[in-house]
## 1
Amino acid sequence: MSTNSSSAPMPTRHGNAAARAIDLRKVYGSGDTQVTALDGVTVEFRPGEFTAIMGPSGSGKSTLMHCLAALDDATSGQVFVGEADLTSLGDKELTRIRRDRIGFVFQAFNLVPTLTAMENITLPMDIAGRKPNKEWLDTVINTVGLSDRLDHKPSQLSGGQQQRVACARALASRPDIVFADEPTGNLDSVSGAEVLGFLRRSVQEFGQTVVMVTHDPNAAGYADRVLFLGDGHIVDEMNEPTSERVLDRMKSFDGAAHAGQVT
């Protein structure tokens, strides 16, 4: 995959990793109902790179993203965004990190139905009392191809357009890192390709860091690397993935499961 544009400023400003986890554990429940979702995961996400996280159901991929994005607490271990140790911060500091340094794209779009596309895009900054950088905002809007839809409310937009609004919202504040949780899960193949193409461009042209959870080998093919989780562990990593290579690797998970091995 292409690397960062030499003329594009890097949005990640803190340390050598956009985000990282050290010996991360997440346990739900206790006793007979205890489930270990993450079992000592150590991983780093480099600035200006597009990483896909994949694995079978129950592998821990969504839990890993939620802990990295400060949406869920770790049971033990450390999570950093830049040099900020999320596991040592209080609620106010975590809220500020989520607002100012992390962008989110969810499967369900999460747009406010009473607001226009533009108002949804700028909403996080409006809540924070910050004015968007107009030049950057125009760049993001032009890149997602929504210049003629900014006055429309979500109900007047297609699913693909709504998700592009969500992508623009995630990038508008120039976060250190964008987390995308199954961003094409509710989209048809054409709309999904548009959204994935935009995320790819945000990495190539703007130096953005993107981490995406997906079950779709075609989506993973847009990434620079793929991390494969199984049973709460990172079990493999693939650089310069293609959809065909990813699909072959995912089939091996199915084979291991049928053989009664670790999945």
## 2
Amino acid sequence: MKYKCIIGIVMVVVMSMVVYMTVKTPKEPANLIFSGERSKVKKQDEERKNTYVIGVSQLPSNTHPYLQQSDSTQIINQLVYPSLVHINKGNFEYLLADSILLKEQGTKALITIKKDLKFSDGSSLTAKDVLYSYYYLNHPDVNYEGKNTYLCIKGMKDYQSGKAQDISGIKELDEQTLEIQFAELNSNIFYCFELPILKEQNGAYPYSNNTQRHLGAGEYKIESLSLYDQVTLIKNEYNTTKTTYQKIKLVTADLLALNEQEIDTMVISKNSLDAIKQLGAYRIYEYSSRQRDFLMFNVNNDLMSEAENRRVIADALNTEEVVNAVYEDGSVSKGILSGDKEKPNYLSLKKKSENVLNQSVLFQHTYDGEGVGLFETLKSQLQDKVVLANRMVGLQTLSIDDSDIAFYHYSGIIEDVLNSFDLDGYFLQLNDCELKQNADLLEKYLTQETLCIPLHNESYYVIELNKKASVDIWNLMDAY
């Protein structure tokens, strides 16, 4: 009895330890593909521990990083000049916005800004600053690289061209609220809330000032910016968000001098993976690129003009088998809006179709190995539904003039894909709909209508060279 009691106690202790370790041990991210040896991680002094060094491909080329769209300036914008909204894995997440309501079938947006936001000088961020940011960044004399996104706003085309002094579609309603009216309904209405928010300059727009830099309301502020050399960010004491590091540095990464640069994280290509592992990478992550592959249906084709007929083809395809058979690397796209989108996504929403199309359909693809491999794989999978014929072309394009083509292969980004669709049926649903719910609604609509089939994501790789808490920025980047 005594021994049984001891054994029972030991078992309870062991089980308790297992449970404790399970709870206390953080689960590794799904996209982690390599864990290195701790012995190769360099020891750091206290100052270095409080500084996070990010390697980038290109540093800002002028003193206004919010005007550019390189990897370094996007990081600066996220940390110093956050926008109203950002897009993460196909979902809209509010940053400075408290809510954004899409109203009157998507023709209007009502923006409410979070209260108690502060710029890095302690001044309050209000609707006036958001209005100023739209005016400043879209001014004809300001070379902001993202201008085309905002042409969907009423009056923006005339303002950008200098024909009008005001943007007729944007109004400040009160200190916390703005209204935007859209001149045309396309996918850009979902992306026009991502501009960097800058502090209003007392009504004056310093369009030609190359030395004065705007203030932001992010977690960090710019301490120093040396063109093409280095950018140093320090904690914005007026931002209440807790940060792991007091200082962040951005430097131009050099694979041949990583030990001297003491970089904590950077993006590398697949070709560099083995070399980085030998240098002493602590962790390597694989992320889905914005560049993706789709099968696009041609709604101008008589057969494919019906959603049910498109679903017959979509249902018959096993995209995982297609990707494994055709592509050497990368991953299967989960959703239409993002390859990493969690449920609801294309794979979870796809409808079952019992119909059969006893007809011949034409598939357009390139004449390279990838295109030919796609045709052969699709032909095999669709043989019980349709007879697949092919047309080979030299270039992939969204412009399909030949109505004989039923569907085709396209590589690109989701914004271009969305702009090729007639989304009028979707916009009819948008009455007092929160923008952050919009991604799920749009994914459902695109899947139900079966306008395209997401196939494959290209990948990029993020390395961590030191055992430090990550600054999770790479999955928010548009540069990869």
## 3
Amino acid sequence: MKISFVIPAYNEEAIIAKCLESIQQELARGNYDAEVVVVNNASTDRTKEIALTFSGVRVVDQPVKGLVHARKAGFDATSGELVANVDADVILTPGWMDKVLKGFADSGLVALSGPFIYYDLSASSRVLVKIFYGIGYGTHLFNHYVLGIGAMLQGGNFVIRRDVWEKAGGFDTSIAFYGEDTDVAKRLSKVGTVKWTFALPVYTSGRRIKAEGLVRMSIKYTLNYLWITYFGRPFSSKYIDIRPKNYAKKSHQKITKE
């Protein structure tokens, strides 16, 4: 199966190279049929120029700013049977591709996702994140298997089947940011299997958690997950862009293995 990587990027000149390097390194591990598209989402920095220095990477311009607008533009510009939605600050873990292709060997699987490992957070914060994931997964199991609603996906680390997502209506651009992954999971779970697995992690930055605080972010993500699941709309309509000026230096620090 061909897999299309879609990477939304708004002013990500400090970190987009690390993401693309990790994808190219992962693709070099095997003979994969893949394409990589960066969606330049109204950037005013060198995001587009940096992305174009990578062999085989295409850049699609989406002047309408917004995460879901960017995901949709990337989806429309690609052709793979599978579409991997990867955030610009994500670094793939070794073996990620093989796990994805093995998972989608099951024809009933329509979406696959896994957690983030925040490589630049303290050890204690990473433990708290794991606890939050555990609570979230437990809530998902209750909602899905007891109440029969919803599913769980991690925005920035999820893969979907193109044909099924098209039939499900595609991305809802009325959602600005929070809850977009839950909306995808909820709608796809009605037509096939949506699988969350801790065996498919990726590394990512903890910049939003650092900026807004772990407790505040946990509450915000929880509320939006519940609102989308139960009411079909996000709890939060606004979000802030986190692009620290000194992140270029931080992004090159050593990743803590887990």
## 4
Amino acid sequence: MLKKKDRLLLKELIENSREKITRLAERCHMTRQSVYAKINSFRTRGMNFTVDVNPEEVGLNMKVYILIEAEPQAKFREEADKEIRQFKEITQVHHILGRFDIIVEALVKERDDLRKLLKKIHALPAVKKTETFIVYETTKFNLRDPIIEALSE
């Protein structure tokens, strides 16, 4: 569990990760040295501070969600999961409950790239079938809101 000052600092970094350490220290009522140490601690715990890029600005015009039904044997599933995580087009991999076993999110430039990705997925021994959903419009995409809300509690 994060301490109150850690939560405050994380919230500030999420809102502007390029803020000067002296300004962060003022806002969080900490010393510059403490802020610097906390940021390094966050990094060692796997928290990255990076830029948000609109995928369409770099030519990734198509977002898709692919539901995957996999073979029930754990060996096949583990191999498929390992392979799928290596596909550069895929941004997220989630194991789910229900009719399907895995859902992946992918970003591709065009239909031909989607076709190639689906062929790679179908070539995996564990994959029994897939169902693909193409996003035609996104009205909200903001990973920050739930995190900032959780940090505010």
